[in-house]
Amino acid sequence: MASSYLLNLFGQSPIKPLQEHMSIVHSCVETLLPFFAAVSKGDWTGAKKYQNQIADLEREADEIKKNLRSHLHKSILMPVSRTDVLELLAAQDGIANKARDIAGLIVGRQMQFPQEINPYIEHLFQRSVDASLQVKKIIQELEDVFESGFRGSEVQAIQDMIKELDSIEESTDKIQIQIRDTLFSIEKNLPPIDVVFFYKVIEWTGGIADLAHRVGGRLIMLLAR
Q1: Which is nearest to 146 in space by CA: 78, 214, 90, 93?
Q2: Is residue 46 assigned to a domain?
Q3: Domain range for 148
Q4: Interval 34-48: pLDDT, tens
Q5: Domains in the chain: how many in total?
Q6: Position 207 pLDDT exceeds 90
Q7: Cα separations in angstroms, 176 against 50, 189, 215
Q8: Residue 25, domain CATH
Q9: Is residue 3 part of a domain?
Q10: In a domain, 75, yes or no
Q11: 186 near 104, Cβ under 8 Å?
């Protein structure tokens, strides 16, 4: 297609590396589900194994990020802003970093969540994974948007997917409120230092969906240009 020719003429398309990066980022986040299952059972050997997998995936994503950054020279002409690409990349990378930090904190302190909030935490993990998956799906569609010249049904499809991402992010906010309310009602019976870190895990896990939402926001700005 003509747009593909232009991409080759003006510079390598950043979309393929972005897609590869987001695919690994999502694998990183997705591993939080079996990780949390192991934590819930007190299986710290299994939890450590999944934590190592998350850390390895985060490092792999980091290498792709560094490689893409090094190839986005200011002198290269691209059909999208270099700044937009770097902002997307940073938001995607933040998702993987957050997953790594969550797993590291939980394993480092061998955190056992109170039975009253455990199901809510599990739900929050699942919705955060859903947000990451939605970003992965959106990024996979970007190539079609480029080839359409940022017009037509391809753009509308991405806009619809971003609306769904917004909905997922809103649901994580509601789950966090439920967890905090429940935790507040029982925290006087828990060691104070544990309570501090429970709130930190809640914040960081919700942060995955927030970062996913940021990717959607950057894409809206990109499409508007």
Answers
A1: 78
A2: yes
A3: 8-224
A4: 999 999 999 999 999
A5: 1
A6: yes
A7: 24, 20, 21
A8: 1.20.58.220
A9: no
A10: yes
A11: no
Which one-letter amino acid corresponds to residue 179? I
Structural domain includes residue 218:
yes
List pLDDT tens digits, range 123-134: 999 999 999 999
Q: How far apart are CA 89 and CA 96, in angstroms?
A: 11
CA distances for 67 relative to 16, 49, 173, angstroms: 12, 28, 34
Distance CA 28, CA 22 (A): 10
CB 44 within 8 A of CB 172: no
Query: Phi/psi class of residue 152: alpha, beta or left (left: φ > 0; alpha: ψ in -120 to 50)?
Result: left
Inter-helix orientation angle 118-140/153-186, to 10°: 170
In 3D, which of 158, 152, 131 has the Cα closest to residue 221?
A: 158
For 148, the token pair is 């359409």
Nearest-10 crossing angle of helices 82-109, 118-140: 160
